[in-house]
């Protein structure tokens, strides 16, 4: 026990000295307790640790990356700010790894992420959409609400996340916007005349009546099948 206590004391010292590389080394180590201590320290230090942490996660092999992401998520709700900052700058593969680790923490993290969907900064709202993508079908309602966000990048991210879940709206006008956000011209072509108004607009302007309500929308899940957008359609 004294042996492991010595390493835990070392992690505390690394935190006090703001030794980010040292903490990253501990985060990637084999001992779960040491990883957990390093993760808590990094979450406490916050944004200043981000560049070194992001670089280490991107450079890590799949197994090490998973261990590190899971250790960060194990900190719980206090890790949400760091996770949101990470996913904004992460590669798609790392985003998926982080989202999977967050999903593994269950409802606690799910509930902690929801307020970020209504943050005043679009970047934070977009980060919340990315972080929720691993939550599966329980994330559909908040993600479908994000389709009506006032910022195009948030709407586009939400559409991509919902497509990965093989979900699509039932409402015709929402279908038009949904497929436009994904640049799925094949699906838009199937909608024929309904797609014309949005195709001639120079920007992602909402269709008339689109987004009038953030509640009560319906949608459907499709069965898996070949699609370049993984929408299962």
Key words describing this protein structure:
HEAT repeat domain-containing protein, 3% strand, 233 residues, oxidoreductase activity, ARM-like, two-stranded antiparallel sheet, disordered C terminus, ARM-type_fold, PBS_lyase_HEAT, disordered N terminus
Quick overview:
The chain has 233 residues and is mostly helical. Helix content is 60%, strand content 3%.
Question: How would you explain this protein's 3D organization?
Answer:
Mean pLDDT is 81; it is low at 1-7, 202-218 and 221-233. The protein is an all-alpha fold and 233 residues long. It is elongated and about 65 Å long. Among the domains are: 8-76, no CATH class; 168-202, no CATH class. Helices cover 60% and strands 3% of the residues. Helix 2 packs antiparallel against helix 3 (32-45), helix 3 (32-45) crosses helix 5 (62-73) and helix 4 runs antiparallel to helix 5. Strands 1-2 form a two-stranded antiparallel ribbon. The longest helix has 15 residues, at 2-16. Residues 209-233 are annotated as: Disordered. Residues 220-233 have a biased composition (Polar residues). One of its GO terms (molecular function) is oxidoreductase activity. This is HEAT repeat domain-containing protein.
């Amino acid at each position: 026990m004294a042996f492991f206590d010595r390493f835990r004391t070392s992690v505390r010292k690394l935190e006090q000295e703001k030794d980010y590389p040292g903490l990253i080394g501990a985060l990637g180590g084999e001992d779960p307790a040491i990883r957990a201590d390093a993760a808590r320290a990094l979450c406490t230090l916050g944004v200043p640790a981000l560049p070194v942490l992001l670089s280490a996660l991107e450079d890590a092999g799949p197994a090490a990356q998973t261990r590190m992401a899971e250790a960060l998520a194990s900190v719980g709700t206090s890790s949400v700010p760091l996770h949101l900052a990470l996913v904004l700058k992460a590669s798609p593969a790392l985003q998926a790894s982080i989202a999977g680790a967050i999903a593994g923490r269950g409802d606690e993290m799910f509930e902690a992420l929801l307020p970020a969907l209504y943050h005043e900064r679009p970047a934070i709202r977009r980060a919340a959409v990315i972080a929720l993508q691993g939550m599966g079908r329980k994330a559909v309602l908040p993600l479908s609400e994000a389709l009506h966000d006032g910022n195009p990048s948030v709407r586009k991210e939400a559409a991509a996340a919902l497509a990965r879940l093989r979900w699509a709206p039932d409402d015709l006008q929402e279908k038009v916007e949904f497929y436009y956000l994904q640049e799925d011209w094949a699906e838009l072509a199937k909608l024929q005349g309904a797609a014309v108004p949005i195709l001639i607009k120079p920007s992602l302007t909402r269709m008339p009546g689109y987004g009038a309500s953030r509640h009560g929308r319906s949608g459907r899940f499709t069965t898996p099948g070949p699609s370049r957008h993984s929408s299962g359609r």
